[in-house]
Amino acid sequence: GKDGYRHYMEKELHEHPLVIGQTLQRMIDPATRKVVLPEMPFDLASLPRAVITACGSAFFAGVVGRYWLEEIARLPVDIDVASEMRYRNPPLTPGSLGILISQSGETADTLAAMRGLKNAGLPILSVLNAEHSSMARESDVVLGTVAGPEISVASTKAFTAQLTVLACLTIAIARARGELDETGEEELVSALLDLPSRAAEVFTHDDAIRKMASVVAEARDVLYLGRGSAYPVAMEGALKLKEISYIHAEAYAAGEMKHGPISLIDRTVPIVATVPSGVLFDKTLSNLQEAKARGGRLLAFTDEAGADRLSAIAEQTIALPKVHPFVTPIIQTIGVQMLAYETALLKGTDVDQPRNLAKSVTVE
Length: 364
Ligand code: M6R
Prior knowledge:
This protein is an alpha/beta fold. It has helices at residues 8-14, 16-27, 56-71, 82-88, 108-119, 134-138, 157-176, 182-193, 195-202, 206-216, 230-245, 281-293, 307-311, 328-347; strands at 28-29, 34-35, 50-54, 77-81, 97-102, 124-128, 141-144, 221-226, 248-253, 271-274, 298-303, 316-320. It contains 14 helices and twelve strands. The model has no long low-confidence stretch (mean pLDDT 96).
């Protein structure tokens, strides 16, 4: 049941802290505070590249994973949505690792793309919530997201669990490749272990998120902006808004705005910005200043360290808990998913069963 929540989506949103914690318990040894992965039939140290494929939200989790694997593990990554990957026939570097991400383990395009990578000789590592699924049976290694059943068509907790697994995988690959020493690993593991309690604090912002939703609910179009690993969070926020509130939303890499979409900006197109403090903060802020100068209404998700400077330019600013920069996409995700949920409530849509959508897309 819904345990007293109005919708499964609301219940599942509130399960973020629990699910992140359960997933970490599977992947981190509490005694050594080290990431421990199951036995792998390939050597993590000698992978030349990784090829990631998935659909929808799972694809956005993969995009965050790409930023992590490239930056922290220094592993070259190719990524595409499975519906493209399955027909691209890309030249594959022998020995590369195929990584798929799926909540259901049954998505037709992801399964087909997986079979393509497998037939080309790549070992397959799957990040799956359904551990008894078609993808699980055909993978060489399964890393389980311990999210429990997800009923709402809009994915919430499965997405943050996917990010949690990809973060641990990044640490393991980085260590194997000699890119992360003991201190480095301890720092990243601490950041992950800190997440369940920080994630729970996001819900204390529900009033502020509802206030933001009242602006979004009035709009016909919404622009989501972010840079670096906050860019796929913007994509996730935009998809979730479209999916359940039927408001048109588009995510853009903040730096791309002046190459086109800035022409859309006026008072009627709110801008939801995901801007954690960190190396890309100033760059994103200057993109937002440009948008504001053209009459844009800024609604910003930042953290305690970024709040002062953002509130100087944004109409509404939400200061999410300050976490290590590595894990900011996980915290920011909860904020944008809650915004979509609150907006859908205001629109009165069928949150758990949005029109035209199925939980699991088992046809092409
Ligand atoms: O079961 P999967 O993770 O393979 O599903 C992939 C997408 O269909 C899914 O994430 C979809 O985009 C969600 N409805 C997003 O909320």
